[in-house]
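[Solved] Which block belongs to which protein?

Original post:
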Amino acid sequence: MKYRYAMVCSSNQNRSMEAHSILKNKGFNVSSYGTGAHVKLPGPSLREPNVYDFGTPYKHMFDDLRRKDPELYKRNGILPMLKRNAAVKTAPQRWQDNAADGSFDVVFTFEEKVFDMVIEDLNTRDHALMKTVLIVNLEVKDNHEEAAIGARLIFDLCQELERTESWEDSIDDIVITFEKQQRRKLLYSISFY
């Protein structure tokens, strides 16, 4: 694979990790991140989310929720999701703290708010490399079913990008074709860092 990819959602739990898992298993050079202030997982009610710091191991979250209410978190898919995540990497990482991870060629986001935050963050970074990066947003609802669909669509887009000589010359055609075939809108931007 010629490009390095980043998958970014709010908490680095569901959407970004589903895509990270699929791409990693297919041999892509991929990392994943969240942009939120904390990692939030559903709790017993909307007013009672489970909140963790970025860097808290997925295994710790799994053990904590299994201790709190194993039936609830198994039924709502949180425990299986955390188990998958732990098999991909140790802990959720925050996008804004990833500079030491190096540069990416393509960054995929899963909601417009995250897309905007990634662009804003890239624009505030030191532009010493002046490396071009493509940021693409595919709007994906934050549930397990939509995350699986979104990850497959991202995989298809990555395959298209890998087939090109240069994504800079092909991105408009790739987006137009994708939007016609999938009837889903993509936002994209080009930035430097």
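(Second protein starts here: sequence line, then its structure tokens.)
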Amino acid sequence: MGPFTLSVMVNDSAISLPDACSKRKQNLLLKNSFASVSMGDEKPFDFLRTLFEGVIAGGTAGVVVETALYPIDTIKTRLQAARGGEKLILKGLYSGLAGNLAGVLPASALFVGVYEPIKQKLLRIFPENLSALSHLTAGAIGGIAASLIRVPTEVIKQRMQTGQFTSASSAVRFIASKEGFKGFYAGYGSFLLRDLPFDAIQFCIYEQIRIGYMLAARRNLNDPENAIIGAFAGALTGAITTPLDVIKTRLMVQGSANQYKGIADCVQTIIKEEGPRAFLKGIGPRVLWIGIGGSIFFGVLESTKRFLAERRPIVSQHTYSDRSKDK
């Protein structure tokens, strides 16, 4: 099946409202769709406003979902880090949450803040039949930007989740003194190997299904519908990328022991010592965590975006035309 065509033109709209509705409501409906559709020539691209709204929406959604699902993430991490017949410890499931939120907030804000304006720009550049490529590309670029914050946060979080440290501050001090700056970016390559495909695929699946459904339903979607689509996109992407997540976890939690020399050595060692099935360790909690997380994240994200969009100043098309003439 080819990708959905996601373009909505104002003059020949695929989303039609009853004649009794005003033109202003039609414009508001399209505007509330934010950057998920191509707006044609409706209004100029406002990079700074899109960046600001993306930062606010992304930060809000990231904090909510991380707080709600942190215990499941902890169980998943401990399952993946366990070697051989080690027992799973169920104590301290919120260990490291406070320090992790300090990284999740700016990382989520940065990701969505980069993703949204790039997505809007690419949707205006690429042909309509390549809309999926816009979402894939924007997701990957957003992931690269956010990784600068995500990776140190992930390293500290997973070291605490596996019981190596009792506080974020002690983890930071130890890593800095024993492993140096590069210790905060342990497993960076495997992190990108997991997160770039994950971000690109998850957001592409979510955007394509959401906008395709919106065009078919001929209306904007409500929060439960956005949440359901987010859950499906998250769960599917989480299952696909589980082997990459196992490799990333092993490299990040090894610390100064250096059990693995790199990604290739990690893969070979896991296959030799534990067999291929080890690459699916934690897939249950991961799919559950990311599925529920996708539901919460995208539900909160779209709600926040809509809240901000409804409070944008309404500027008529004539005003934009006048500004263009002045230039």
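Accepted answer:
You had them paired correctly. Confirming on the second one: DSSP finds eleven helices and no strands in the chain.
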